[in-house]
């Protein structure tokens, strides 16, 4: 979910894309991200990839995921991301985490899909940019759109965390799983799209 503001900036600086609406631009941006991640994909029969896939399947079944969601296990700096509301890319290093921590990361990403976050954000963009992506128009609304998209993205992160915690409880995993997980991950500050570690931990504590 990190690419939205970047997608807007790309749209603004890419006249070749004029004539497309903002949803097509967002889709294209995420497809490019997926293509890059697919180049870093780990073979499906790699033992660590199989560990991640198994947890992913368990979480999908537990949440009764109705639509098909593809998992791509990758190497690189990314921990996990949900793309276009139908693909989850997850780092092969998730195999080194405990089963419940791995489930939390994957359940968080699947929570974005269960809550329809991709289309929510698309609707927000479409409200601000209803027609063709035209530089003069996007320049004029970039500030307010950026603020609203950032606020919505943060809300979606909290919602995905809450979804994942509820699901883990149903699966019988320890209640402190996400708190232990965040201790194992690097401390991060808030960005335009994501709350920082402290904010996410504080929010998770309110759900206990
Ligand atoms: Zn997220």
Chain-wise SSE layout:
Elements: H1 4-12, H2 22-39, H3 47-62, E1 70-74, E2 80-83, E3 87-91, H4 99-114, H5 117-128, H6 135-170, H7 177-184, H8 197-206
Parallel strand pairs: 1-3
Antiparallel strand pairs: 2-3
Bound molecules: zinc ion.
Explain how this protein is built:
This protein has about 210 residues and is mainly alpha-helical. It has one domain. Helices cover about 60% and strands about 5% of the residues. The chain has eight helices and three strands; from the N terminus they run αααβββααααα. A hairpin with a 3-residue loop joins β2 and β3. The longest helix has about 35 residues. The structure holds zinc ion (ZN).
Brief characterization of the structure:
The chain is mainly alpha-helical and 208 residues long. The chain has eight helices and three strands. The site of zinc ion has 5 residues, from α4 and α6.
* Number of continuous helical runs: 8
Structural Rg: 17 Å
List the ions, cofactors and other small molecules found in this model: zinc ion
Structural class: mainly alpha
């Amino acid at each position: 979910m990190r690419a939205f503001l970047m997608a807007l900036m790309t749209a603004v600086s890419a006249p070749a894309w004029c004539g497309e609406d903002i949803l097509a631009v967002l889709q294209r941006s995420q497809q490019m991200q997926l293509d890059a991640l697919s180049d870093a994909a780990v073979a499906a029969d790699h033992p660590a990839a199989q560990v991640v896939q198994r947890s992913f399947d368990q979480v999908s079944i537990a949440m009764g995921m109705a639509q098909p969601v593809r998992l791509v296990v990758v190497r690189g700096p990314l921990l996990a991301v949900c793309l276009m509301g139908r693909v989850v890319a997850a780092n092969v290093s998730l195999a080194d985490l405990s089963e419940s921590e791995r489930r939390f990361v994957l359940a968080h990403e699947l929570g974005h899909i269960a809550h329809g976050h991709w289309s929510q954000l698309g609707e927000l963009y479409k409200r601000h940019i209803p027609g063709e992506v035209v530089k003069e128009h996007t320049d004029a609304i970039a500030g307010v759109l950026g603020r609203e998209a950032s606020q919505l993205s943060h809300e979606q992160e909290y919602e995905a965390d809450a979804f994942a915690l509820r699901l883990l409880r149903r699966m019988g995993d320890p209640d402190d799983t996400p708190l232990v997980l965040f201790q194992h991950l690097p401390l991060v500050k808030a960005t335009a799209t994501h709350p920082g570690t402290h904010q996410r931990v504080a929010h998770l504590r309110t759900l206990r």
